Amino acid sequence: MFGFGTGELLFTALITLLVVGPKDLPRVMRMMAQGWRKIRFYSLQANSFINALIAEAELEDVEKRSIANPDANNLGTRSSTMQTTREQTTREQTTREQPEDLTSVERKQP
User: Fold this and answer.
1) Which of 13, 42, 86, 104 falls 20 to 30 Å from 5 in CA-CA distance?
2) What residues contact 40, with CB distance under 8 A and at least 6 apart?
3) What is the pLDDT of residue 76?
4) Is the dihedral of CA 61, 64, 68, 69 positive or negative?
């Protein structure tokens, strides 16, 4: 753990106990634990953000290669198929008819 041995940890605990005092030691330890949790949380978030950026850059690189050479590994045809599927889905969503209002249906009847 960070190159600290048992002796260093005991020495640090003794100094902390003398400086803070036994009365406030639990409160200080809780605050330190909360700070440590926040540091871990933000470091994990930063790590996942960086991994997402790397994955996105790799995806863009693959897309650029597939556009430059569409016959390589059949990536170009798969990419164009995915694009066609996206366009069809978008078209279906925009042309979907909304159900009529029941009051307007009732008014049309004699």
Assistant:
1) 42
2) none
3) 47
4) positive
Successive 10-residue mean pLDDT values, the chain, 110 residues: 79 90 90 94 94 88 77 52 60 55 51
Residue 41 is predicted with a pLDDT of: 95
The count of domains in the chain is: 1
Contact between residue 52 and residue 64 where contact means Cβ atoms under 8 Å apart: no
- The CA distances from residue 78 to 49, 63, 82, 92, 97, in Å, are 28, 11, 6, 21, 31
Look at the block and give the residue holding tokens 């990536």: 75
Structural domain includes residue 16: no
Q: Domain of 38?
A: 23-88
What is the reported pTM? 0.44
In the structure encoding, which two tokens stand for residue 14, read together? 């003794």
**Cβ contacts of residue 16 below 8 Å, gap of 6+?**
25, 28
- Which residue, among 49, 46, 68, 69, has the nearest Cα to 57 in the 3D structure? 49
